Structures are given as C-alpha cells and as structure tokens.
C-alpha cells in the first residue's frame, strides 16, 4: 500500500489522545495507541502525554512493537530575553532525552504571545500577542542557540509553525526562516497548520523545501474553520469543533503535496495527524483510511513520473 513512498511514515498519538484538548481520549491507554500503530504497519510515533515517562519502560514498549520515537514537542519562550538561560537549559535536557531515545528531530515552537501556551497569559485575554521587532530578534537568537545544542547531539531543531502562536501565517514563517541560521534551524512542515494559518500548503512546501527536516500530514474541515472564524473562535475551540482531520477527510488536495515530496526524494519522517475527538472519529479507522488515501496518491505520483 505504501511501497512507493520515499519517506518514513508514522502516526502521532494525537490521533488517539488530545494534547490541547485534554478530554479527547482521556481514558485511552498508551498500550492501545502503540498496538494500533503497530497494526497499521507503521514504525514511528511522537511522544504523547499517555506514553510512559520512565525511559526504560518507554523503550521496551516501543521496541517490542518495532516502533521508533521520532520526536517530542518542545515549547520554548525565546521571544523574552529574560527567559533565555533557563529555556536553553530545559532545551538541552529535552534534547538529551530524545537523543537517548534515538530521535533525530526536535519539534520546537515558540509559545510567547500564545493564548493557550504562554504561562504569562491570563484566561480573560482573547488575542495572540504578535511579536515586535525586539521579540523577533530575541526569538531568532534563542532558536539559533537551541539549534546549536541540537547539533551537538547530531540532531535538528525542526520549528513547528502552529495555529494560535506567533509563527502561524506564511509571512511569519518566511520571517523566521530568513532570520535564523539555516544550518541550525529547520522547519517542521505541517499541512494542516499551514492552511489554518492562511498559507497554501503546496506553495509553502516548495518555498522552504530545503529547510524541511520533518513533516506532519494533517487535513482541515473547511466548513468548520469558516464557522469558527465567523465566531472569532480561538485555536483550542477550533480543535473542539473538529477543524482538523486526517489526510483525505478534509479540504486539502494532497496529491500535489505527496507528488512534490516524492519527486524531491524526501526521505525523512512524515507523521499522520488528525487531532480530533476520538469518540466521534475512531482513530484506527481514520488512520487506516488515510493510509489507503496516501498510498493511492503515491501510486498516482509514480505513474506520472
């Protein structure tokens, strides 16, 4: 089904258990998630909140199923210079853990200014606080320093542009890429967050392909997004409404995206993501349908080569 892929395909536990919406999959065990990933024939996953925190238990759980821990999200607060030292120390500890797990990329996102991730924000606030020039400069410097730490361990900082954060739109992604060292700061290309942030995913892929170290494949329900935007809903509310789904179940045309990745010989990891209520959208069933869809697209891309 997936023989034509040049890249490695895994599944993010966010298909089973929400990270931003805690009630999604609250009763799901890590054994269920990993067993499903194995049954899907996939060999990669990201760290999730239900996975064991004991490294030896985690290693055994993964190894017994032939699954690699590919990455783990790391929030950073580099836009505020006063946090730089403590944030870099935390980043090093994070890199060391992932290095021990055999991971090669670190999913990294700035949380300064975000409604839901910035620890300095209060519940009554309604908008993301965009960075000023000083904030951008501090962010870029912090990311370069963190990327240097990752490089010490033979790893790559993969910046995750993300809805509801200060690096969300195409212009913000462009600015981040322009301000950071291309040998130290790479891009985590996310199809769903690209569309959510107002970018054309294919255009973004082509523009920044040489910086892409990691891929998330996620689809968007346009009607849900339109309704949420009309209500001025925040990011987490959009998740609760079901704005995201797996490839093939939303509005995005993945054919040119898959074709582009294959034609360029992308050989890194791509992670399947849905980020929706598993009670309404059974994770194994949706993931399997997405894999069939991707497989067909890869086959069509091969025929057109």
TrEMBL record:
Top-rank taxon, per record: Bacteria
Transmembrane spans: none
The Xylose isomerase-like TIM barrel domain, residue ranges: 36-281
Pfam families: AP_endonuc_2
Family annotation (PANTHER family): HYDROXYPYRUVATE ISOMERASE, INOSOSE DEHYDRATASE
Protein name, entry field: Inosose dehydratase
Lineage: Bacteria, Bacillati, Bacillota, Bacilli, Bacillales
């Amino acid at each position: 089904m997936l023989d034509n892929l040049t890249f490695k395909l895994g599944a993010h536990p966010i298909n089973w258990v929400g990270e931003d919406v805690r009630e999604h999959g609250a009763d799901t065990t890590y054994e269920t998630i990993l067993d499903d990933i194995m049954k899907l024939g996939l060999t990669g996953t990201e760290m999730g909140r239900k996975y064991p925190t004991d490294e030896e238990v985690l290693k055994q759980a993964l190894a017994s199923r032939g699954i690699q821990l590919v990455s783990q999200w790391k929030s950073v607060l580099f836009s505020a210079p006063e946090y730089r030292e403590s944030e870099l120390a935390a980043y090093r500890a994070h890199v060391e853990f992932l290095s021990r797990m055999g991971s090669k990329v670190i999913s990294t996102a700035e949380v300064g200014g975000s409604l839901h991730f910035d620890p300095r924000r209060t519940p009554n606030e309604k908008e993301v606080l965009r960075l000023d020039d000083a904030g951008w400069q501090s962010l870029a410097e912090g990311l370069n320093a963190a990327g240097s730490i990752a490089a010490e361990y033979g790893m790559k900082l993969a910046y995750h542009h993300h809805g509801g954060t200060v690096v969300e739109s195409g212009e913000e992604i462009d600015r981040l890429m322009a301000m950071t060292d291309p040998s130290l700061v790479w891009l985590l290309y996310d199809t769903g967050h690209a569309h959510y942030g107002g970018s054309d995913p294919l255009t973004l892929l082509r523009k920044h392909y040489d910086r892409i170290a990691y891929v998330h494949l996620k689809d968007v329900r346009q009607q849900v997004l339109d309704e949420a935007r009309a209500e001025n809903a925040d990011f987490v509310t959009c998740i609760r409404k079901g704005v995201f789904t797996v490839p093939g179940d939303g509005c995005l045309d993945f054919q040119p995206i898959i074709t582009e990745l294959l034609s360029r010989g992308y050989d890194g990891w791509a992670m399947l993501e849905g980020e929706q209520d598993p009670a309404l959208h059974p994770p194994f069933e949706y993931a399997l349908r997405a894999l069939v869809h991707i497989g067909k697209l890869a086959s069509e891309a091969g025929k057109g080569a």
